[in-house]
Amino acid sequence: MTQPTSPSPPTSPSPPAGFLAEVKDAVTVRAALLLVGVLALQLAFITSYIGAFHRPQPSEIPLAVAAPVRQVAEQSARQLADLPGKPLDPHAVQDEAAAKAEVENREADGALVIDPAGTTDRLLVASGAGASLSQALELVVGRVEKARGRSVRVVDVAPAAAGDARGLSAFYLVIGWCVGGYLCAAILAISAGARPANPHRAFIRLGTLLLYAIAAGLLGTVIAGPVLDALPGDIMPLWGLGTLVVFAVGAITLAFQGLAGVVGIGLAILLVVVLGNPSAGGAYPYPLLPPFWRALGPALPPGAGTYAARSIAYFKGNAAAGPMLVLAAWAVLGSAVTVACAVFRRGRPGAAVGAGLPDDAAAARGPAGP
Questions:
Q1: 3-state percent breakdown (helix, strand, coil) of the chain, nearest 5
Q2: What is the pTM of this model?
Q3: For position 73, what pLDDT does the model report?
């Protein structure tokens, strides 16, 4: 016969661990490192934007110089090239038609047409390439002409549309496309793990990204064009550009996620937003930016996209081929790295974004999702 067991005495609650222990339990090393990374990204954002925009100065703005007599144009070009600080990069051309053609083909940002028989010369500008750039040209050339006892009449050969204040609509459109690209890629990662588990999933993500890019490119073009009447030009070329911008940025983001997991989203923001946006030539075109941003901008998607969008809208597509090739290169590179990471990590699913699990723990728990 079994003896009844007496109930065990109630256990007393453990003493409080203390505030520092609670902090250690609540804030993991991983979370602390991510916060440090966010702080660094924020400081880089501030440094990049203020560094690019705080003191715009014209530097070696390409300027065509024309006159009825070639020697007059060459002499004037040499004088303009010797200005302190080298705000202009002038060169003599054969005649006014050649000077205008260079502006329209985006080979020069402006043109000075000299009239030796009078006291008024003409300055050809293109505000569609950015109002701040054309204004800088007016200011620099106007000062030189005034010092010579001459005046200048400004002629805008590629004016910005009435609904495109200061020629910034192309820049804002491209920035919107870039934001859509990396947000789409980030959502694809959040829904099925931070890293591609296999090649099939990588191709599915890239295919989904392409469909999204096609839709985003079309809708952005329609809003900027027919709806708001901000950008002129045909819909098809801008649609194609928008598709390429969105896909290129999204592919870059997927590639960074494949290489670095959730940290890859921050790396994509660093490249596209922190470095790409202030160097894109939007508010201040390339000749007004400091040397670092001026050199960096054309190689990144925001800069390439902005330049190409302005070329399509205001210059009949002239000089858009180079930026389009830059975007295509980013798209191909991002896609290739995404697929390569998936092949290399075959069968090793990554932790979902925000799960707080290392890759090995996620692999032990099984696939991360469909």
A1: 60, 5, 30
A2: 0.86
A3: 94
**Cα gap 23→240, rounded to integer Å:** 51
Note whether 289 and 279 are within 8 A (CB).
Answer: yes
Q: Copy the structure tokens of residue 356.
A: 């707080």
Across the strands, what pairs with 258? Answer: none
C-alpha distances (whole Å) from 71 to each of 9, 76, 116 are 109, 9, 11
Neighbours of 321 (CB within 10 A): 11
For residues 249 and 362, the model is more confident at 249
Give the pLDDT band of residue 151 (cuts 50, 70, 90): very high
182 vs 254: CA distance, rounded Å: 8
Which residue do the tokens 């096609």 mark?
A: 214
pLDDT in tens, 324-356: 999 999 999 999 999 999 888 754 554 444 444
* Buried b or exposed e, range 87-109, using 16+ CB within 10 angstroms: bbbbbbbeebeebbbbbbebebb
Distance CA 247, CA 67 (A): 46
